[in-house]
Design a protein that fits this description.
Shape: globular
Helix content: 25-40%
Distance between the termini: 28 Å
Strand order of the largest sheet: 20-19-18-17-16-15-14-21
Radius of gyration: 23 Å
Bound molecules: magnesium ion
Largest sheet: 8 strands, parallel
Structural class: alpha/beta
C-alpha cells in the first residue's frame, strides 16, 4: 500500500529564550508531516531536530523530505537511515497514528463490547480491550488464571503486568471474587481503563499484582497473543477506602491531542539562574512536583548558592533535577556531586535532588561512569544517548544509571520499543519542545516504556508560543 503525504515547516518562538550551556535558544523550528492512506485516514508526524544535541539538522531533514516520492510505502518509512533519527521518529509515528485511525474508523463496533465484557481492539500495534465492568458479590477478589489468547493479532505479550487505570473499587464489607476478569491490553501491557468493580460486603486485597510493569516483553509483530497465566491476584489485604487509585499515573487518561498536558506526573523546566527562585511557585500550584533547573550557565559559586536557596525555598516534597547539558568541567562536576551528596546526607527539610543530568560532554562517558559509582547522587545521561545507536552503545559499555530519552530525537519508535523490551533500563522520557503532534507520540512511548516512578519530562509547553494548540488540523492550517 502507498500513502500520500505532505509536509510543511513550522516555527515557534520561545516566550523567553531558553538558556543552556550551549547558549540561547529562541526559535523552535521543525517540519510537520501529514500521511494519508487510500481510505482517507490521516496520521501526523513531527520532525523536531536539535542538531547541537546530536540529531540531523533541519536542512538535512528538509532535503530528505524533498527527495521522497509523493507516495510512500511502508518499506520506505521503516528504512529511513539512522543518520536521520528525527525523520525516523516522525514518519514512523505518523504511520502508527494513521494505522490507529484506520482501525478506529474501520471497526468502531469492536471497541464497545457487551456490558461486562472487555472488547479487544486491534490497533495494529496494540490490543486495547475496553469497557470492563465486573460485578461480584460476597467473595474474594481474585483474578486468577486469567488467560487471554488472541489470535491473528500483532502483539505477543509475555510476563504481563497489570497497570490499572481509573480502577474504581467500591468495597463494602465482604470478600469478592472476579474469577475471569477481562483485561485491557494496550501497547504490550494490560491496562484496564475505567474498570469499575462494584463490590458488596467485601474485603479487597491485592496480592502479587504488579502495578508498575517493567520488562513486559513484546514479540515481533504478527505473533499470536497468549497470556500464559494469572494477571492479577487480589487477596489478603484490605482496601479501606471505597475509591482506590493504585498508581499516580494510573488515574490519568491516555494522552490526548485535545489536552495540552495530560494530568500525568511531569517534570517542569525552571528558568536558569535566580528566576527559578520565583518561577517554581505558579508551577507548583498547577500540580508540578518535579522541577528541572539548568546548571553550568553561570559561575558555579553563584549557582551552588542559588541551589541551596532553591532547595530551601521549594517544598520538601519537591524533587529537583539539575541539567548541565554536558557543560561542566570535571572539577565542576565533582563539586556539584559533592554539594548534592551533602544535601542527600542532610536533607534538612529541603527539596530532594533526584539526579544530575549529563554533567560532562558526551566524549567523557567513562568519566561519568566512574563518577556515577563514586557519588550517591544519581547521574542521568541525556546528550550521550541522543540517538538509539548511542543509547545502545552506552548500555553495552555498562551504563546502568538513568537514561533520559527524547523520543523525537532518538529515532525509530519500533526499534526503541524492541530495545526497551529486551533491556530493563531506568528511562525518563523527555520533550524536545515539540508541537502537540510530537508530544503526543512521545508521551505514548513514555507511557509504554518509561520508568513510572519518575516524572516524565514533558512539562515544557509553557515555554513556547501557541504550544497549547492541540487541534492538529488547526495547527496544520497555521503553518
Ligand atoms: Mg538534558
Amino acid at each position: 500500500m502507498r500513502y500520500q503525504w505532505q509536509f510543511q515547516p513550522y516555527r515557534r518562538r520561545f516566550k523567553q529564550a531558553l538558556e543552556t550551556s550551549h547558549g540561547l535558544w529562541t526559535l523552535r523550528e521543525g517540519i510537520i508531516l501529514r500521511l494519508v492512506n487510500e481510505a482517507g485516514n490521516v496520521g501526523w508526524g513531527e520532525i523536531a531536530p536539535i542538531p547541537w544535541f546530536g540529531s540531523e539538522t533541519l536542512e538535512q531533514a528538509w532535503s530528505f523530505c524533498h527527495q521522497l516520492p509523493s507516495a510512500l510505502s511502508e518499506e520506505l518509512i521503516f528504512s529511513i537511515p539512522n543518520a536521520l533519527p528525527c525523520c525516523q521518529f516522525a514518519f514512523e509515528s505518523a504511520w502508527e497514528r494513521m494505522k490507529e485511525q484506520t482501525l478506529d474508523n474501520a471497526a468502531p463496533q469492536r471497541r464497545s463490547g457487551a456490558e461486562g465484557e472487555a472488547a479487544f481492539v486491534d490497533e495494529g500495534l496494540t490490543l486495547r480491550p475496553q469497557n470492563l465492568n465486573s460485578q461480584a458479590q460476597n467473595s474474594n477478589i481474585a483474578v486468577q488464571n486469567s488467560n487471554i489468547a488472541v489470535q491473528n493479532s500483532n502483539i505477543a505479550v509475555q510476563n504481563l503486568t497489570l497497570r490499572p487505570q481509573n480502577l474504581i473499587i467500591q468495597a463494602q464489607t465482604s470478600i469478592v471474587a472476579v474469577p475471569h476478569s477481562k483485561t485491557l491490553a494496550q501497547n504490550s501491557k494490560f491496562l484496564p481503563q475505567s474498570s469499575i468493580t462494584p463490590l458488596q460486603n467485601s474485603d479487597i486485597a491485592v496480592q502479587n499484582s504488579e502495578l508498575q510493569p517493567q520488562n513486559s516483553k513484546l514479540r515481533p509483530p504478527h505473533a499470536i497473543v497468549a497470556v500464559p497465566s494469572s494477571i492479577v491476584t487480589a487477596q489478603n489485604s484490605i482496601l479501606q477506602s471505597q475509591v482506590s487509585t493504585i498508581n499516580p499515573r494510573a488515574v490519568s487518561p491516555r494522552p490526548s491531542l485535545l489536552s495540552p498536558l495530560p494530568p500525568l506526573p511531569h517534570s517542569v523546566l525552571l528558568p536558569a539562574g535566580t528566576a527559578a527562585l520565583h518561577a517554581w511557585k505558579p508551577l507548583w500550584q498547577k500540580g508540578f512536583r518535579t522541577f528541572k533547573w539548568k546548571i553550568g550557565v553561570q559561575a558555579i559559586v553563584t549557582e551552588v548558592e542559588l541551589l541551596h536557596e532553591l532547595t530551601q525555598t521549594l517544598p520538601p516534597t519537591a524533587k529537583l533535577r539539575l541539567d548541565a547539558n554536558g557543560g561542566l568541567s570535571l572539577n565542576e562536576a565533582i563539586q556539584w556531586l559533592q554539594v548534592c551528596d551533602a544535601l542527600i546526607d542532610n536533607p534538612n527539610h529541603s527539596a530532594a535532588i533526584e539526579y544530575i543530568e549529563q554533567p560532562l560532554d558526551t566524549a567523557q562517558f567513562q568519566t561519568m561512569q566512574d563518577l556515577s559509582r563514586r557519588y550517591q547522587t544519581p547521574i542521568a545521561l541525556d546528550e550521550s544517548i541522543a540517538t538509539l545507536q548511542q543509547l545502545q552503545t552506552c548500555y553495552a559499555n555498562g551504563w546502568r544509571g538513568i537514561f533520559v530519552i527524547k523520543p523525537a530525537i532518538v529515532g525509530s519508535p519500533k526499534h526503541l520499543r524492541q530495545f526497551c523490551q529486551e533491556h530493563l533500563i531506568d528511562a525518563v522520557f523527555s520533550s524536545a519542545f515539540e508541537t502537540a503532534i510530537g508530544r503526543q507520540a512521545g508521551l505514548q512511548l513514555a507511557e509504554e516504556l518509561g520508568n513510572l516512578d519518575r516524572a516524565m519530562g514533558y512539562g515544557t509547553t509553557h515555554w513556547l508560543d501557541d504550544a497549547d494548540i492541540d487541534d492538529v488540523e488547526q495547527l496544520w492550517q497555521t503553518l
